[in-house]
Structures are given as C-alpha cells and as structure tokens.
UniProtKB/TrEMBL annotation:
NCBIfam families: MMSDH. One of its GO terms (molecular function) is methylmalonate-semialdehyde dehydrogenase (acylating, NAD) activity. Keywords: NAD, Oxidoreductase. This is methylmalonate-semialdehyde dehydrogenase (CoA acylating). PANTHER family: MALONATE-SEMIALDEHYDE DEHYDROGENASE (PTHR43866), METHYLMALONATE-SEMIALDEHYDE DEHYDROGENASE [ACYLATING], MITOCHONDRIAL (PTHR43866:SF3). Belongs to the aldehyde dehydrogenase family. GO terms for biological process: L-valine catabolic process; thymine catabolic process. InterPro entries: Ald_DH/histidinol_DH, Ald_DH_C, Ald_DH_CS_CYS, Ald_DH_N, Aldehyde_DH_dom, MeMal-semiAld_DH. CDD domains: ALDH_F6_MMSDH. Residues 17-477 form the Aldehyde dehydrogenase domain. It is an enzyme of class 1 (oxidoreductase). The keyword Transport does not apply. It comes from Parendozoicomonas haliclonae.
Amino acid sequence: MTQRVPLFLNNQCVNSSATATIPVTNPATGEVISEAPLTTPDEMQQAIADAGKAFKSWRNVAVPERSRLMLRYQALLKEHHDELAEILSRETGKVFEDAKGDVWRGIEVVEQAANVAPMLMGESVENVAPGIDTVSYIQPLGVCAGITPFNFPAMIPLWMFPMAVACGNTFILKPSEQDPHTPMRLAELFREAGAPEGVLQVVHGGKEQVDTLLTHDDIKAVSFVGSVNVGQHVYRTATDHLKRAQCFAGAKNHMVVMPDANKQQVINNIVGASVGAAGQRCMAISVAVLVGEARDWLPEIREALAKVRPGAWNDSGAAYGPLISPQAKERVLGLIARGKEEGATCLLDGSECAVDGHLEGNWVGPTLFSGVTPEMDIYKEEIFGPVLCCMEVDGFDDALEIVNNSPYGNGTSIFTDSGAIARRYRHEVEVGQVGINIPIPVPLPFFSFTGWKGSFYGDQHAYGKQAVRFYTETKTVTSRWFEPSFESSQATSGPNMTINLK
C-alpha cells in the first residue's frame, strides 16, 4: 500500500480523511513514493481555527524566548542537515551537494530569526509636545500562510515560517504537493525544538486548499513563491480579500559578458549558473548577453556545457538531477523544439538525454542556443530547465537595453574588469538583485530577497528587515500624564494608602 503523507496539526502528524490524493513521484525513476492528500474543507477550517487559538498565547511569549526557540531549531536543523538533504534529494531528484545547499540556505534564515529582537524594536520620542510622549510598538499580525514551490522544499519554507513565528505570529504552510516530505520533516523538527501546539500547521493540496487560505478572514498575510500565473492569482485574490501578500513569481535572468572579463571565470560560472539544479531555480542564469568579442567564446562555452552530466542524487559525478515531473520535461522539450523552429542556432541539444539505470527519469541534457532574439519564445518564456540562451550585441548600451526591456527583474549579473562599467550597470539596470562578477546574487538573510517588476508582486520582500515589516504591524501610542492635586491624592489613596509623587 502506498504511503500517505500526513497533515501536521497541533504538533501531531495526522492522517487526513480526504479520499482524493496527488501522487508524489521520484523524478529519477518515475516511481510513486507516496500520496499527498487534498486536505478536506473541514480540516482546513480546523487548522486555521487552531492556529488562531494558538496565536492568542504565542503573541504574548517574550521575544527572547521566541529567539531561543529559533536557536534550538537551527541547532536541530544542523544536526539533521544530511538527513534532510537525503529526503530532499529523493523526492526532488537534486544531487546531494545541491540538496545540502538547499537545506543550509534555509538554516541561515533561521539563524536570522533567532536574532529578531533588534528588528522588533520600536521608536520613541519624549516631549513631542510639552508633557507628551510618543512610542511605537511592533506587534504581530495573527495567522499567516505560506504557499511554497517544489524546487526548494527546505529553503523556501524556512524563508517564511521562522521569521513569521519569531515575530509572534502563527503559521499555516501549504508546501508543494510534488515534494511534501521535506517540509513535513521541517515541521517535526520544529516541534522537537519546543514549538507550542498550533504555532505551525502543515496542510496539503492544490488550488482549492490555496484559495481557502487566500479568502479566509482569519488569515492576515500570505507569502508565495512559484510561477507567474499562479503568483498573479495569489496576489489578486489575497489583496481582493484585504490581506497582505508577497508573491515571488517568474524570472528571466541575464548575465552580461563584457569582452574585458576573465574568460575562464565567465565560462566556469555560466555553466553552473545556467544548468545547475537542472535550471529549476528562479535565480538561474538563462540568458547570456555576449558583448563584442565575447561572442567568440561560444565554442568554449559549448565545450564546457557538453562536459556536464546529469544523474541520480547519489551519483557523485553528476552535476544535476532530473526535472521534477514528466510534464515539466515535456514543456522544456517543447520550448527547445520551438527555439529551433524560430531560427535560433542549437549548438548543444540535450533533448535525447538518458541516464543508465534510470531510463524512466525526467532527464534533459545541457542545451545551448545562440542567435536568440527578444521575439523568440525561448527568450520570452521562463524555460525552467537546463537551457542557456545566448544573445550577441555590439556594445554595453545594447546589452543594458535588452535587460531593462525584460518584463522580469529578479536577478542579473555582469562580468567585467571595468569598475566604471560595473558601477554604471549596477546603477542603471532595472533588476532587484545584481551580481558583479558573481553569477547568482542571492543575498544572505540579513539583507532581503528583492526581485523587481514581473518577478515580484507586493511591497515587502522575503527575509531580513523587510520580512519583519511584512509580518508585523506598528502601533503608535501618544500619552500625557497629569500629576494629581493634593486633594485628589487624598481622595483616591484612602486612609491607609499613600502616593509617592517623586
């Protein structure tokens, strides 16, 4: 009998009464490893109600004690780091080193959540007017929700609930139905760290369950990472129901390569940044803009990509794993075929990739196109596979125009030895996260993850100070105190009471 993934309700793994399920498959073999239930409406309502009940007490837990919970949690995550990475590898197909990185980047956010106290400090001014003081307090919102994607099942949930909970909220997580085992293990370790009942709830499902979170009156804020279409739906629905929303959506990240850059460094970095994690990451470099003589490096880029080999999670020689599903593979293969039809030159074609011993896996080999133009679908669409599109331009201004005309603004990088060119690019490019001689400029968690344009819908970003602002409200109190007169002091104190006015 196929294992069913439980819900996580009030610190217990609970079997759902749902009859409808979604199969969870091993992407390297096609084998069904478990089933995720479509959480019933009654279970969804109960999860939200219990999170609301837990909030009433959790919000009053002292900030240092919340921080200590996160310290205990990060210690447990480190202790179980490799275990989590193996669970993650088996259900996503990621190679083990990549999976360990996924877990570690989440641990870094938990460490920042343990340091939340300075970010929860309000402000005060004495004597804003004679005898009047004003103080602001940072207070939690209530029940928050997170909807996370398949590609980072450890890191992205850990972007969300530790910061929300450290701020005094309770949280309902709806992880991807394609790899729910990693988030469930995260929840179990959170309980082991000492999280009270109801502070974190985990439910499973699809659109119906998501829409319940987006429309329920008791959900105050929603965090989302995923595709453009779903991100727009989440943002519109949540805000239509008067909720806060932060929605991280699609990307088309460009690497601008200037001819004065170090060629070997460019080639080394562009290979990993484009096909690492099978290209299934929102910060992947999927477009290289080769400026001037840098276009002559295409044969060497092709040669380096051709050496990259996909394989199973425990294959130490494999650079990346399979795509998450047969549907994802078919979509990527369709875009590769369309690129050829549109007139791009396919210098390296991974469409026929196969891995010995895993012939049923969702494999796509490294693929390289040159001669790509902005009108082509392989440029306009986020491929989300191990495909690198190369564009060739004459000068820096042409490259900057291409990047700024993109509807996305998640990440970009420039490789150059010119400080002046790097500074101008950093200043003028319309992208939220910029790398200079760094291919994937994901900020550490004491900053915030700051995608722009069509890559993000909302006002406050993930982790860092912006996450604290997203998960909290500011209360401002202005007060004046009058010293009682002698007569009123005697009247209120009584014969056996005194008032010290010093």
